[in-house]
Amino acid sequence: MGAFPSKNWVTLVILRVISETPMHGYKLLETLNESGYLVEDKIETGTLYTTLRRLEKKGLLASNWENPPNEKRRRVYTITETGTSYLKELIISIMQRKSLIEDMIKYYTETY
Predict the structure, then answer these.
(1) Contact 27/102 with Cβ under 8 angstroms?
(2) Residue 2 — pLDDT band, cuts 50, 70, 90?
(3) Which domains does the chain have, with CATH numbers?
(4) Distance between CA 75 and CA 83 in Å, rounded?
């Protein structure tokens, strides 16, 4: 169908996943690509890190460096209060659209 996932969808999914569990970029990449949230597409490493930096600049995410023993240093992302509010707005928008989509599907199945 084309332009899926959109930038807003990727933002929504990142915020949704990180709101549950703060995580570092590579773990987030694995989670997103295994989750099914991105349908048939996979997010590329460069796209993910660019998006994480953009979301951090907007104040939707925050990050801290961790130094786990016997592992590489890594940046762990958490959702901010602003990010949580934005996520709620996105989810409300989806719920509103869901009703419209259900109505369109009902019309289609009854008409065709």
Answers:
(1) no
(2) very low
(3) 7-111 (1.10.10.10)
(4) 18
